[in-house]
Specification:
flat; Rossmann fold; Cobalt-precorrin-4 Transmethylase, domain 1; alpha/beta; binds iron/sulfur cluster; 3 domains
Length: about 290
């Protein structure tokens, strides 16, 4: 069985940067009270590794002790959360990806200019929550074209997407909103292409590989939005698509009768984990 890995699989620039910053900081703060506010990236193994380096993972500001140090996740936080953390902590390390920061700036400006901001993304995702926090209560999250029906159009609308949004879904949402804006005689709609390059390239490579494969295995955290989107893209092409967090979850039966297996991985999946999965699939292929 031929096993191929999608180009660009694994840690992206934003994740590499965040992990480097976090480990340097943990070294500096060794022996002191240190927290990671939210998962630094959506990968359980990496969250655990950072905990071992001294940064305790917490999901509430109340759990952060006054005077301690805190690492902000690569997905970003709301303005309000940042204020609270800076007020409570002796020092704050912000590892928010620059691509997410850019969306915060766009949304802040749109909000100041009285635009209603529509965010195309997953309302439960940390990045989307952080972006919504910049809309001063005048933002709304849309995850699919269907949700546009219940959208209350405003005079001026700005549209941004989660950095890891599926390009096809974003395109469909933009077109749906433009159509509705036209019917509602809205004065203005501004659209921003905020899908990051790492995501665009990875999605394209995954799509191409899915077209050439009999089975696709997507590696990454189950709560990683960009990993889930790779799964969705592959599932649009193939029936046999599996999402695993590690090599242990692979089952021999999945590969029965298959001639080619494709592997792709989310932006928060470490290279070591991807290698383990690829090697195990190769072994399954050799044993067949
Ligand atoms: S996927 Fe894109 S936005 Fe997210 S951390 Fe990586 S580079 Fe940044």
């Amino acid at each position: 069985m031929k096993v191929s890995l999608a180009e660009g699989s694994g840690f992206c620039f934003g994740v590499e940067r965040a992990m480097d910053m976090a480990y340097k900081y943990a070294k500096e703060k060794k022996g002191k009270e240190l927290y990671s506010f939210h998962e630094i990236i959506h990968n359980p193994q990496e969250v655990l590794r950072l905990e071992k380096a001294g940064a305790k993972h917490v999901d509430s500001i109340a759990a952060v002790k006054k005077g301690s140090s805190v690492i902000v996740s690569t997905h970003g936080i709301t303005q309000k959360e940042e204020e609270l953390l800076r007020d409570k902590c002796a020092s704050v390390l912000d590892t928010t990806c620059p691509y997410v920061k850019k969306i915060h700036r766009i949304v802040k400006k749109l909000t100041a200019e009285n635009y209603r901001v529509v965010i195309a993304g997953d309302a439960e995702h940390l990045e989307v929550k952080s972006i919504l926090g910049y809309t001063a209560g005048n933002g709304v999250v849309v995850s699919s074209v269907k949700e546009i029906n219940s959208l209350d159009m405003k005079e001026k609308t700005g549209i941004v997407s989660q950095t890891t949004q599926n390009a096809g879904t974003y395109n469909a949402i933009i077109n749906g909103i433009l159509e509705k804006a036209f019917l509602n005689r809205c004065a203005e709609v501004r659209v921003f292409n905020t899908i990051c390059d790492a995501t665009k390239n990875r999605q394209k490579a995954t799509l191409e590989l899915a077209k050439k494969s009999d089975i696709m295995v997507i590696v990454g955290g189950k709560n990683s939005a960009n990993t889930r989107r790779l799964f969705e893209i592959s599932a649009g092409i193939l029936k046999d698509v599996y999402h695993v967090e590690g090599a242990k979850e692979l089952k021999k039966s999945w590969f029965k009768g298959k001639k080619s297996a494709g592997v792709s991985a989310g932006a928060s999946t470490p290279a070591g984990l991807i290698d383990e999965v690829v090697m195990k699939i190769r072994k399954i292929g050799d044993d067949k």
